[in-house]
Design a protein that fits this description.
27% of the residues lie in helices and 31% in strands. By secondary structure, it is an alpha+beta fold. It has one domain: Aminopeptidase, CATH 3.40.630. The chain has an eight-stranded mixed sheet, with helices on both faces. Strand 7 and strand 8 form a beta hairpin. The N and C termini lie far apart (34 Å).
Length: 197
C-alpha cells in the first residue's frame, strides 16, 4: 500500500473548484476551529467515525499534515458550511500487477453544518467531488460507507449515482447504538461518464 496522498498529489486540481453555489478547496490549519463549531454538534458526530465533542480531540485528529491531504472545505458565499473527505488508496491486486493498482481509487465522505441542511449543499459538493476524482485525478473507482440507519447519507450516495454494493449485517460498531448494519456504495469512472453523457 502507498502512503496517504499529500496536497502535492492533488496538484492536478485547479484549486479552488467552484460549482453553481459552492467553493471547494483544500483545508488549511486555520479552518480547524470553524469546522469544529459544526462537527462538535451531537447530530453531526452521531454518524461520523470520530467523537469530536471536544476541541482538543478535533485538533488532534485534524492536525497537519495528514488531515490537510484528505480534507476539503466547502464554502458558501465565503463561509465554511461543510467539508469533504477524500482518501486515495491502492486497489487490491496480485503482486505482479500491484504497481498498476497504486492510487487508483478513493473513499469519499461529507459533513455539512446542520444550519445549512436541506439546501442541497451536500449533494452539490459530493457530486463535484466525484467529478474531481474522475476528471481531475483520473481515479477509476470511488466508494462511500455508512451505517444503514444513516438514511440521509445513503440516499445522498444514490442521488449522486453511486450503487449499493454491500449491505452487511451488524458489521459496524456504533459508539452508543452497538452493532449496526453497514452499507457500501461505489461507482466506477466509466459508469459515471455514461451518466454525464
Amino acid at each position: 500500500m502507498t502512503d496517504e496522498p499529500t496536497i502535492q498529489d492533488l496538484s492536478s486540481v485547479a484549486w479552488p473548484v467552484r460549482t453553481a453555489r459552492l467553493t471547494i478547496r483544500p483545508m488549511r490549519a486555520e479552518d480547524v476551529e470553524t469546522m469544529w463549531a459544526y462537527r462538535r454538534l451531537p447530530s453531526m458526530w452521531e454518524w461520523i467515525s470520530h467523537d469530536f465533542s471536544t476541541l482538543e480531540r478535533f485538533v488532534e485528529k485534524m492536525s497537519p499534515p495528514a488531515s490537510l491531504s484528505r480534507t476539503l472545505v466547502v464554502e458558501l458565499d465565503g463561509r465554511i458550511v461543510g467539508d469533504l473527505y477524500l482518501g486515495i488508496s491502492d486497489a487490491w491486486s496480485q503482486s505482479d500487477v500491484a504497481e498498476q493498482a497504486q492510487g487508483v481509487q478513493a473513499e469519499i465522505g461529507w459533513a455539512v453544518d446542520p444550519a445549512f441542511a436541506g439546501q442541497g449543499i451536500a449533494t452539490e459538493a459530493a457530486a463535484e467531488l466525484l467529478r474531481i476524482c474522475f476528471e481531475d485525478l483520473g481515479l477509476r473507482r470511488i466508494q462511500a460507507l455508512c451505517f444503514a440507519d444513516n438514511v440521509p447519507s445513503w440516499r445522498l450516495m444514490e442521488r449522486i449515482g453511486m450503487r449499493r454494493e454491500e449491505y452487511a449485517v451488524r458489521d459496524s460498531l456504533h459508539r452508543t447504538k452497538g452493532w449496526l448494519d453497514g452499507m457500501t456504495y461505489a461507482v466506477l469512472a466509466d459508469e459515471w461518464r455514461e451518466r454525464q453523457a
